[in-house]
Design brief:
Elements lengths: L1 H18 L11 E11 L2 E15 L7 E8 L2 E8 L5 E9 L27 H5 L5 H15 L6 H13 L3 H20 L1
Antiparallel strand pairs: 1-2, 1-5, 2-3, 3-4
């Protein structure tokens, strides 16, 4: 059972590595970010920027990594969730990093004005927003592509079974001939 789970887990990781973005910004709760999202309206596409405070991060090491960004728009709080590995998310820029001690900043919903200000932390914007590809990720992605490229070998028994099914099926022409031959026999039996 354990071997099966290990094989299944490694297979899932190989498939996920194919769809993960190799370059993802280091985003944390308390960051002020600008998310560039591709929007499709009819047959036109444009990039929309959503700037706000990251109040929650989730599953940052998986393909379903997401962030919840909150901003105040026209006096109303607006929250939007973004999948980090989504092809619709073009770019994420961290503009400010704040010191927080939680992952989920739900208390920020009740705050406004000066009480909503967060103390900033010095950080190197270029270093955070520079999304160079880590070597281990490129290696994992190459291994995943190689594993997926290898086609699974077919079971000879399964192949023989499919050939038998095909041989049992008659072409449409033979079926039509058989039905014509049986039709006169049915008429003779009904005449008696």
């Amino acid at each position: 059972m354990i071997d099966f789970l290990e094989v299944m887990f490694s297979t899932i990781q190989k498939v996920e590595a194919k769809f993960k973005k190799p370059k993802v910004v280091d985003v944390r709760s308390g960051d002020t970010v600008r998310v560039h999202q591709r929007i499709t309206e009819g047959n036109k596409q444009r990039v929309q920027v959503f700037e706000g405070l990251v109040i929650r991060t989730g599953k940052l090491n998986s393909i379903s990594a997401n962030i919840l960004v909150r901003r105040i728009a026209s006096g109303v709080g607006v929250e939007k969730s973004f999948l980090l590995h989504s092809p619709l998310v073009e770019k994420i820029e961290v503009t400010k990093r704040s010191k927080v001690r939680r992952n989920y900043l739900s208390y920020m919903r009740a705050r406004s004005g000066k009480s909503a200000r967060m103390s900033g932390v010095d950080f190197d914007k270029e270093k955070v927003n520079d999304v160079s590809v880590p070597e281990d990720h490129t290696k994992a992605a190459k291994e995943a592509e190689a594993a997926l490229a290898e086609e699974p070998k077919e079971d000879p028994q399964a192949k023989a079974d499919t050939e038998e099914v095909k041989s049992e099926e008659k072409p449409a022409e033979e079926v039509a001939k058989d039905s014509e031959e049986k039709a006169p026999e049915a008429e003779k039996s009904s005449d008696k």
